[in-house]
Design a protein that fits this description.
Blueprint lengths: L9 E9 L5 H12 L2 E4 L3 E2 L7 H4 L4 E11 L4 H15 L7 E8 L3 E6 L8 E3 L2 E10 L2 E4 L5 H4 L1 H30 L1
Length: about 180
Amino acid sequence: MSILQQPDPVKLVASLLSTERDLIPGVIGALAERYGKTDYVSAILPFDFTTYYRKEMGPGLVRRLIAFETLIHPADLPDIKMFTAELEQQSATGMKRRINIDPGYISVGHLLLATGKPYAHRPYLRNGVYADVTLIYRDMSFRPQEWTYPDYREQSMIDMLAGIRKKYLKQLAAARKEKETETAE
């Protein structure tokens, strides 16, 4: 028989894609206002893995990957996805987004992204939001799955995410220690 228990907090991350570099800092600010200070912001990275966004946002897409200092409860991810969808719509021109925001989280064992697109490998969470287990942490590294997007298969992305995970593990150890101290009192 399994014993039900609460999950560990997880590290909120988000990927921001846009052709308008000057739009990205404002969106990062709006996210930080809602979810707390960022503790990782990547350099501006070219994004040429797909033409999926070209019709909507145009050519010359760039990405910034960000992570937040404050850990979250994994059940908060659908609310975060709904908020990022609102931000996308607020900056849209007509029906065309000017930025794509993909939130997710890093846990001890995986990188999970929130999506509105259902597929066989994406369990439903709630409010139209599905979970995509994009990478699994195994054998000392993140490992792609057969459905993992090409950009998340890149070693440079895996290295960035591993660095964020390392920071997360320190935060998680501190949170566990704090919880033990509170329980002992």
